[in-house]
Specification:
heterodimer; A: alpha/beta; Rossmann fold; GMP Synthetase, Chain A, domain 3; four-stranded antiparallel sheet; 31% helix; B: 138 residues; alpha+beta; VC0802-like; Alpha-Beta Plaits; seven-stranded antiparallel sheet; 4 helices; 7 strands; 41% strand; elongated
């Protein structure tokens, strides 16, 4: 599992000098600190250092004031919240202590669905600048509205991520998230606008052209899903390029689906980039709710725009820092679609301690799974990402895999399909069988689940241009 | 030593035909083909007249094809011809992973052998007056 909380030492004292200079230069105003080349050599880049490195007490004051405004906005303008706050006996106008957040009522995905289409908007839809919606495969879509101020804030969040991976106004940003109702494409796009970067709005698909333009335009930063980044890398290599050396790419901001450490290293190696994990969900805002810095030791949360709680998924009580639980988010600045204690069903934890990058914004760990995507296999709770972490230990295997669940009689049967790397020797059958056996043994000892491992032909596992479909659950069909 | 083409094939209808068609269309001729099969997949081993080209043709078409160095030994096509070779290997402690044979012209057979110790094997072959051949000799 990702989440080594021990800070790595700063390489040299000069790093600290630069960080301290940033503090001095960033007094009350929001400033982007850049030199003439737009880079702070050897140091950390910031988009909004005054906030990202804010004194914690001042930040708590800002959070309380914004939470009070949000509660008033919710109570005055959204029927759902007027009811739920009244039922919980909360007077939103006398709320004066952040610790009392734990007594506020929750918001669930179903609440958002029930309010379809605009029941959770705090303003008239005519005043709304833009609408996004998440897929409604199992019910009504959840619709989220943004005012211009909401969009600007969102852009600022993603612009911070561009700085986190070392980019700035001089960067060329290739956005290969899908554009449309999905928040990935336009969220990254807004970030590029706020940062002043040059935006290449590719959307997803047409991968050969993605590679061609990435190379010809000397793109610096790529934003897309991790599985699509890997497909872009493999396509570039198939076309005869060595992107790690031939391309100008230096950073990748990847999110919207889990990425194992093994997959991260594979992408970093093939593209020659630093990969940072970005978190967000459309109900809350979109990508940028939190993002890793270059130390890759957890995702800095945008605590000036959201309060993140980690709760025990059973008791729904707050957990201490360091313990895994469900991520619950309260928005602080959203005008159109504010949320109080939204249950994300994502599993993470708060990483204690301060990061070496100089930000005071606290960090959450990478998402370990989802409470509702958790697979229950013969009574054992398993997160799909745990498979990926085990596979990452095998250098003979690529990052492509697929889990197929079937029922054999009364019992669950798990088949894991894996593709070996191109230099794996197929010539002796016992080598194939040995690989299948050792992967199976490793999974059994890590997950306590018996898995039938199948080595399959190259490219026989479906490649994805968006979120990869890694699990095929056929148990209910039989 | 010669290059043997090894292809990993899942047991799916039409895969072997597609493989042979791909080689045929590329103008590649096969001297021998053998399949080691399991429940779910087969490993196809092929001696072809242009293994390097064959591998690149198959890889382009999405097959997992690789080249493996194997011994090809010219053996007299008479009873006991192979036995004599294997006895020499046994004497030299040479372990065989797999082997198969095909008949060539002029009363000769060619035995293709994958072994773990090539130097000892070549010495054993010479000790009984047999000849290991290079790919040009096929």
């Amino acid at each position: 599992m990702a989440g080594d909380c021990t800070p790595k030492p700063v390489k040299n004292a000069a790093d600290w000098v630069i960080i301290m200079q940033l503090f001095e230069r960033s007094d009350e105003s929001e400033v982007t600190v850049t030199n003439s080349q737009g880079k702070v050599s050897g140091g950390e880049r910031f988009f909004q250092p005054a906030i990202e490195c804010m004194d914690r007490t001042a930040l708590a004051g800002l959070q309380l004031q914004r939470l009070q405004d949000t509660l008033a906005n919710c109570y005055n303008n959204i029927g759902f919240y007027r009811n739920s706050l009244d039922q919980a006996g909360i007077d939103p106008f006398t709320f004066s202590d952040l610790d009392n957040l734990r007594f506020l009522p929750f918001t669930t995905k179903q609440d958002l669905r029930d309010a379809y289409p605009f029941g959770m908007f705090a303003i008239d839809v005519k005043q709304v600048q833009r609408l996004h919606a998440s897929s409604g495969t199992t019910g009504n879509a959840t619709v989220v509205g943004y005012t211009q101020s909401d969009i600007d804030n969102w852009g600022d969040l993603f612009a911070r991520c561009i700085a986190l991976v070392g980019g700035g106004p001089e960067s060329i940003l290739q956005v290969s998230y899908g554009y449309g109702l999905f928040t990935g494409g336009l969220g990254a796009h807004e970030g590029g606008i706020r940062m002043g970067s040059t935006i290449l709005p590719m959307s997803s698909g047409n991968t050969k052209r993605q590679v061609q333009m990435m190379r010809d335009f000397a793109v610096d930063i790529l934003a897309c899903t991790p599985s699509y980044a890997l497909l872009i890398a493999d396509t570039a290599i198939d076309l005869g390029y060595d992107p790690a050396n031939d391309f100008a790419l230096s950073g990748a901001i990847l999110g919207a689906e889990p990425c194992s450490e093994g997959m991260r290293h594979e992408i970093e190696g093939k593209l020659g980039v630093k990969v940072v994990d970005i978190y967000g969900l459309s109900e809350v805002m979109g990508p940028g709710v939190s993002c890793e810095c270059r130390y890759q030791m957890g995702l800095h949360m945008a605590e000036d725009h959201f309060i993140t709680e980690i709760l025990d998924p059973e008791s729904l009580q707050p957990l201490p820092d360091g313990e895994w639980g469900e991520v619950v988010i309260t928005t602080l600045t959203k005008q159109c679609s504010p949320l109080i204690r939204y249950r994300t069903h994502d599993i993470s934890r708060i990483l204690p301690g301060q990061c070496w990058c100089g930000r005071t914004l606290r960090r959450m760990d990478r998402i370990a799974g989802r409470t509702d995507d958790m697979l229950i296999i013969r009574g054992v709770n398993v997160f799909p990402n745990q498979f990926a972490e085990v596979l990452a230990e095998f250098t003979e295997l690529t990052s492509y895999y697929q889990i197929v669940l079937t029922r054999q009689g009364p019992l669950d049967h798990v088949t894991l399909r894996v593709e070996p790397t191109s230099d794996f020797s197929f010539d002796e059958i016992r080598r194939i069988e040995r690989l299948e056996r050792s992967v199976g043994a490793e999974l059994r000892s890590n997950l306590q689940v018996n898995v039938e491992v199948q080595v399959v032909e190259p490219m026989s596992i479906e490649r994805s241009e968006g979120k990869a479909r890694r699990i095929i659950d056929n148990r209910s069909d039989e | 030593m010669i290059d043997q083409l090894t292809v990993f094939l899942e047991n799916k209808k039409g895969r072997l035909a597609a493989l042979c068609r791909a080689l045929g269309d590329a103008g590649i001729s096969m001297h021998a083909l053998t399949i080691a099969d399991t429940e779910r997949y087969g490993v196809v081993r092929i001696i072809a007249d242009n293994p390097t080209k064959a591998q690149s043709v198959l890889s382009e078409q999405g097959f997992r094809a690789s080249l493996t160095k194997v011994l090809a030994v010219e053996v007299p096509d008479v009873p006991g011809g192979l036995a004599q070779l294997l006895e020499a290997f046994e004497l030299a402690d040479v372990n065989i992973e797999y082997a198969y044979c095909f008949s060539a012209a002029d009363g000769k057979a060619i035995d293709v052998i994958r072994i773990d110790d090539n130097e000892a094997a070549e010495a054993a072959i010479q000790s009984i007056g047999y000849r290991a051949i290079a790919s040009e000799g096929l």
